[in-house]
Amino acid sequence: MEQLANAIQGFVSLVARLALMTIFLVSTVANKIPQFSQTVDYMGREGVPIPKAALAGAIGLLLLGSLSLIVGAWTRIGAFFLLVFLCAATYYFHDFWTIADPLQRQLQTIQFLKNVSIAGGLLTLMAFGGGPWSVDGWIDRRQAEVEAGPTPKPRVTAKPTAQA
Length: 164
What we know:
By secondary structure, this protein is an all-alpha fold. It is 74% helix and 0% strand. The chain has one domain (2-138). It is elongated and about 100 Å long.
């Protein structure tokens, strides 16, 4: 029963990591990198300081964080990288509190709350790690095996032979 629970936890944590990183990786590869100049201009209009350097740093955080979540290696650090990006992006681009138009304010409030929800998922990864189906999980299992010491070899005893 424990093996089944471990397999289910491994599968669910893998799916969660992949779901969380998808928005970050796709937006980076399909938008931020190929439209670098346009993104820098947009960031400048939104008040991001030193937008070119900020975008380069954001791309680094997004790629490293996404790749970390995909394989589950250094998952807590990768989730932290994505959380840092998410907090900054939420502050600069979903600042509903500064918007007077009710429809735009409502739309940005929804985007803000969506990011709060994503942050909750990233915080969960930071708290609990990548799960059993991750590089981190494999390392944890190997370390536990080493700390437990070598498993004793079964003792082979000779069977008495029949005397004639």
